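Quick sanity check, Acyl-CoA thioesterase:
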Amino acid sequence: MQEFLEKFAITTKVNVVWGEMDALGHVNNVSYFRYFETARIDFLTQTGLLSVLSEPTHSPVLRDTYAQYKRPVTFPDTLYIGSYITDIKEDRFTMRYEAFSESQQAVCTTGYANVVMFNMKTGKKSPIPENMLAILKQYEMDDNQ
C-alpha cells in the first residue's frame, strides 16, 4: 500500500459503507462514480484549484466519465483513490483515478473523467485559465506510470 500512496501527490481516503453494496453482495458500480467525484473535489481542494474556480465565469464541466472494475469490493473496506492529470489541451484535460482496496491490498478500480472548460457567460468552451493551467501541470503524470 505504501508504494501506491507514494505514487500519487493527492490521495483521498473513502470508507465503504454497507448501503453501497448491491443484491450481489459487492459495492454497486454507481458508487465508484461517487468515490471519483469525492476524489475530484478533494483534488481541487488540496491543490487550491477550488479557490481559483471561485470566479463564476469559467467552470470545468465533465464531458464523460469512465470506470473499469478490476476486483469486487465488499463492506467493510477502505479505498484510497489516487488522482492525477493527463492529456492537458487548450480547453480540456483528463483526470485519472486509481482506487486501492485496503483489505485486498490491490487496485480494484480505475477510471477517468474528461473535463472541458466552459465559459458560463457565453455558454461555450473556453481556454483553461493560465492560473489553473499552472496548477494542473504540477499534477500531470504520464499515463503509463
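Posting the structure with no commentary besides this: The domain at 2-138 is CATH 3.10.129.10 (Thiol Ester Dehydrase; Chain A).
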